[in-house]
């Protein structure tokens, strides 16, 4: 099964994706993480991406579609992907459908996390990410536990996690990304989830949906 995790910045896509990876033996592919890796490599493309991300805008469809095709075409991930933060535009949505059929796969469901802007702003401002194991924590809501996976966490923050950029990311989400939900609704793939609840409660609901899928 391939699953799309959908929602505004800070909704919990990455957090829920990490749980799903463990319990359902899937792979998470986050376009945000892949783009940040490109920035860390300090290539000229990386510098271009950095300035786009720090404006709260979207990186071009060409770049993101290419990143996804690299993964979708790899047999290791065949029908076992969680898409976190992709697709985000109508173009990406259509391109994903094209790639899914090209590589003979299927999208099993779209899980849309609904959270209001005030809550996600607080979540984003408290986000901490371990630079070693990649796990996502929160200094207000989900502080790192004592060595859950034997990693001595080195906590970092993201350069786009500040009040000004969050406002722009939200605007971009409403203008360019939210409209694609109706596309998936028409295909009967959409599951709307109350993302305001606690992490574990949301995960229980998501897990139930996935177990009930006809994959
Ligand atoms: P990306 O990295 O995808 O950022 P985003 O969409 O803004 O989403 P976030 O990663 O901020 O939030 P999340 O939903 O993953 O939440 P998380 O689980 O971390 O993209 C960054 C940028 O890259 C974009 O702005 C764009 O420029 C570019 N980009 C990426 N994909 C692209 C694409 N397809 N096309 C073009 N450009 C693209 O949780 C947030 C915090 O809240 C954490 O601290 C977590 O611990 C906490 N938390 C989670 N759930 C809960 C809960 N239920 N209760 C309390 N706290 C919670
Ligand atoms: Mg994320």
Overall description:
This protein has 215 residues and is an alpha/beta fold. The chain is 47% helix and 16% strand. The chain is built from 9 helices and 8 strands. The protein has helices spanning 13-24, 31-40, 44-53, 61-72, 90-102, 117-125, 163-177, 181-186, 199-211, and strands at residues 2-6, 27-30, 81-84, 107-114, 127-130, 136-138, 155-156, 190-194. Strands 2-3-1-4-8 form a 5-stranded parallel beta sheet, with helices on both faces. Helix 2 (31-40) packs across helix 3 and helix 4 runs parallel beside helix 5. The site of BIS(adenosine)-5'-pentaphosphate has 35 residues, from helix 1, helix 2, helix 3, helix 6 and strand 6.
Q: Can you list the strand order of the major beta sheet?
A: 2-3-1-4-8
Number of strands: 8
Mean pLDDT: 95
Radius of gyration equals 17 Å
Summing up helix and strand content along with how strands pair, one would put the structural category as: alpha/beta
Segments where pLDDT lies below 50 for 5+ residues? none
Distance linking N and C termini: 6 Å
Beta content comes to 15-25%
Q: Which molecules are bound besides the chains? A: BIS(adenosine)-5'-pentaphosphate, magnesium ion
What is the string of SSEs from the N terminus onward? Answer: EHEHHHEHEHEEEHHEH
Give the arrangement of secondary structure elements.
Blueprint: E1 2-6, H1 13-24, E2 27-30, H2 31-40, H3 44-53, H4 61-72, E3 81-84, H5 90-102, E4 107-114, H6 117-125, E5 127-130, E6 136-138, E7 155-156, H7 163-177, H8 181-186, E8 190-194, H9 199-211
Parallel strand pairs: 1-3, 1-4, 2-3, 4-8
Antiparallel strand pairs: 5-6, 5-7
Helix pairs in contact: 1-9, 2-3, 4-5
The protein binds BIS(adenosine)-5'-pentaphosphate (AP5) and magnesium ion (MG).
BIS(adenosine)-5'-pentaphosphate is lined by residues 7, 9-15, 30-32, 35, 52-53, 57-59, 64, 85-86, 88, 92, 123-124, 126-127, 136-138, 141-142, 169, 198-199, 202.
